[in-house]
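Review form for a predicted model. The reviewer records the input and the model, then writes brief findings.
Reviewer: anonymous (R2)
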Amino acid sequence: MIGLGELFRYNNLFFRVTGRLWDLFVLNLLWALFSLPLVTAGASTLALYTVLSRIQAGEEGYLFRDFWQAFRKNLKKGLKVELLLAAAGIMIPCSILFWGQRSGMIPGVCMVLSMASAFLYLLMLLYLFQVLVFMDIGIGASIMAAFVAAAQNLPRTLLMLAMIVSTVALAVYSNPAAMVFFCIGVSGLCYMLVFLGPWKEGIREKDTENS
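Model under review:
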């Protein structure tokens, strides 16, 4: 039986869970605010992953200060990444629509290739921002590393994708789930992706090397 002293200790399970939920709420709000111009969404996402990675490594600090510093540091990189992702994100659906309106063997093959490209694009996205945070390499090399990570960790990758799809579907069809998603949806999903990712200790090792 849990005594009153244990119940009100600052480090008990209740306070740890509520504290983490509050952190996710604040980070979700910061991510949304810093993504408002849309062109800064890439830098905002990199900042979110940076702070979440430090939290996972037990290096918690001040959320706003850490987020702002990571945002400023990754602003140029985030803009470049966002432009590349937006270009691919527009071209792939357009390709699917284009070949889907045509019949024949060649359009059919092109349609299959376009659908495969969309699937690979989604798998790459699961790892790209983590690669950009944990590895000091260029954007092109980061995209390739994200593809390699997705292939090498395929069961984990499919679990991540299923988790995201099920969460979004639940938020669409359930009002209470939609409210939760509105409050901690993006930060919560990114937190789980970092937790499931293959670089759990990466931020600590990287900070040690840079110090």
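Findings: The chain has a mean pLDDT of 86.
Further findings: The two ends are 45 Å apart (CA to CA).
Recommendation: see findings above.
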